[in-house]
Amino acid sequence: MPYVVAEPCINCKHTDCVEVCPVDCFYEGPNFLAIHPDECIDCNACVPVCPVEAIYADDELPEKWEHYGEWNRYLSEQWSTAGYNITEKKDPLPEAEEWKEKEKTEQDILTWESQGE
């Protein structure tokens, strides 16, 4: 039962979760974090520290976000190959507070390719 980063993380990217992860299974995109499901040890350490409540056990994802399990696998594999494993806390995105309550979808997720990297 790996954990999954869901929609509330988009355009916020708080990294409190990264700091407490004992196995470094988080991968970083320009405006989103993803958990690699094969690396996650299901320890639950990341869930209580996420300020936007974006992390869920894969079997507890709200129905409207169930597809984020697939997104986490896909993005974490892409970002792993590109060397974007994140292991230390960083500042959230500059407009994180503004985006906290805004409507967003997976279409808002940026990739490094879309950023020209």
Task: Pick out its properties.
two-stranded antiparallel ribbon, single chain, 117 residues, 4 strands, alpha+beta, Alpha-Beta Plaits, 10% strand, 3 helices
Oligomeric assembly: single chain
Briefly, what CATH class?
A: Alpha Beta
* Total count of helical runs of at least 4 residues: 3
- Tally the beta strands: 4
Work out the radius of gyration. Answer: 13 Å
Work out the helicity level: 10-25%
What does this structure look like?
With 117 residues, the chain is of the alpha+beta class. The chain has a single domain (3-93), classed as Alpha-Beta Plaits (2-Layer Sandwich). The chain is built from 3 helices and 4 strands; from the N terminus they run βαβββαα. It has helices spanning 16-20, 68-81, 96-99, and strands at 3-5, 26-28, 33-35, 55-57. It has a two-stranded antiparallel sheet with strand order 1-4. Strands 2-3 form a two-stranded antiparallel sheet. The radius of gyration is 13 Å and the shape is globular. The mean pLDDT is 94.
Short description, anyone?
By secondary structure, this protein is α+β, with helices and mostly antiparallel strands. It has helices at residues 16-20, 68-81, 96-99, and strands at 3-5, 26-28, 33-35, 55-57. It has a single domain (3-93), classed as Alpha-Beta Plaits, CATH 3.30.70.20.
Set out the fold topology:
Blueprint: E1 3-5, H1 16-20, E2 26-28, E3 33-35, E4 55-57, H2 68-81, H3 96-99
Antiparallel strand pairs: 1-4, 2-3
